[in-house]
Amino acid sequence: MALHFLATLALLALDASAAVTVRKTGRAPTGYEVDFSYTNTTASRVLIGGGLQLFTDEFHTTLTSSGGFDPRDYRPGDFYVGSFGGPRDRAWPYEMVRSSGDDGLWTFTTPLPSGIYSFAYLVDCDNPFACSIDTGQLVIDPDLPPYRNVQGDQVASSFQVPYDAQFQGTPTIDLNFDYALSAPAGSRGTIKPVNYTSPGSIHPAPDVHEFSVYLPAEYGSVAGKKYPLLYLSHGAGGNGDDWENLGRMSAIMDNLIRGGLLDPTVVVMPSFYNLDSSLPKFIYGNMSNFAPIPDPAAIRENYQKYLFPWVQDHYDVCDEPGCRGFAGLSWGGRLTYEMYINATDYFGYFGLFSPATSAPLLDNGTLAANPALADRGVFVTYGLYDFVFDAGRELQGALDGLGIEYLSRVTPFGSHYWNTWQDALWWFGQKVLWKPLPVTRR
Ligand SMILES: *[C@@H]1O[C@H](CO)[C@@H](O)[C@H](O)[C@H]1NC(C)=O
Ligand SMILES: *[C@@H]1O[C@H](CO)[C@@H](O)[C@H](O)[C@H]1NC(C)=O
Ligand SMILES: *[C@@H]1O[C@H](CO)[C@@H](O)[C@H](O)[C@H]1NC(C)=O
Ligand SMILES: *[C@@H]1O[C@H](CO)[C@@H](O)[C@H](O)[C@H]1NC(C)=O
Ligand SMILES: *[C@@H]1O[C@H](CO)[C@@H](O)[C@H](O)[C@H]1NC(C)=O
């Protein structure tokens, strides 16, 4: 734990003017505090928004409302489920304070419990739900830039706060997210954006498309070794940088691998927008651009034609379904379903994280025509407070009705958000990936 925390600090310390500092305090309410600082001489009001949320607990959460607790009032068992825009959610507690001098220094300190947080500064913006990068009201922290390929692909910076059992422990729910803290040096894989040739692509350049790749620490050091390969998809309104920037997937993978819970695995995180010009261009940072979501079958066909062969040619990855998987969150879960149904033979493992699936789902005719559907390693997971809860149940019902075995998990603190999907990856890696089939056998 101490090692983890030092590693986190070291990362932040790389930048002398680090704008965000996570500090161990050894006192209530959470055992940790986070200091933000931002310089702007002309601003008259600065809020911290873009993903920093209010808290709730198991007794104050419904599908449309949450406790709306300020982190300064944190109690063990509190977690966040996103903002519903209700009256309490509008009481925005993350308001920066301007120093008395004329240096334009804005600061804010808050306790926070274990977990992933993303943020951007909201400058001269009174409605945190309506400020955008286009109007200059949403400012990315210049000292903690997001992980991204090209500028505009990500609009929030992120950090992880460690767990402290003394202040955050609760007997009813495990809210320790330290599996997403940086692993010690030597156990860290590499993560980077990659451009590949994809005829027809309209971003980041004509006929050039992008993905992010995670290579395990061991990669390249064992002659001739071929690694299992996981494709991991973002959801609607996202891109292939999301999993690292908002979900710290490389830290989760490092910790799975170093703990002996998962074989070293290569992970490719593709981007499903802008594959061709049939839909308007979608750029993450452009909030005025609500591009339609691409059709899963079209994404699948494009990946099969350009992405999958390119990855196979450029990395030391194995080339059989038993060591290849596809997973994704939300619309990426819908895409995973498409791969499960229509690219069944290419993959042995499927992770449907908060899947945005809907009827008609597979039926006995689908199974009769494609019996392999019943011998794959399938994981269906979503949050207890997830707005696709019903969709997840329905998908499970369809699989149950056909006698198809799979593993499932309802994340007890989960909404349709990154802490749920981090949890999904953590358990998918331990319980499903590359495990002997059927994965339901203990
Ligand atoms: C400073 O605030 C102004 C609004 O007063 C904003 O337009 C500008 O982008 C901000 N500058 C920086 C460097 O964040
Ligand atoms: C990918 O291509 C874009 C557009 O040419 C470029 O800005 C970006 O730096 C490239 N990324 C990588 C990782 O090569
Ligand atoms: C943002 O999206 C809008 C609507 O699609 C478009 O008109 C505008 O040119 C885009 N801006 C940038 C910087 O891409
Ligand atoms: C995908 O599979 C379903 C179910 O077998 C089938 O109805 C559909 O036509 C397939 N889609 C494509 C594009 O092949
Ligand atoms: C699927 O189930 C329906 C209703 O139980 C049945 O009528 C039909 O013959 C079945 N089809 C196949 C291909 O097994």
UniProtKB/TrEMBL annotation:
InterPro entries, sorted: AB_hydrolase_fold (IPR029058), Esterase-like (IPR000801), Mycobacterial_A85_antigen (IPR050583)
Protein name: Uncharacterized protein
One Pfam family this sequence matches: Esterase
Sorted UniProt keywords: Signal
UniProt GO molecular function: acyltransferase activity, transferring groups other than amino-acyl groups
Region forming the signal peptide: 1-18
Organism: Neoarthrinium moseri
The keyword Signal appears for this protein: yes
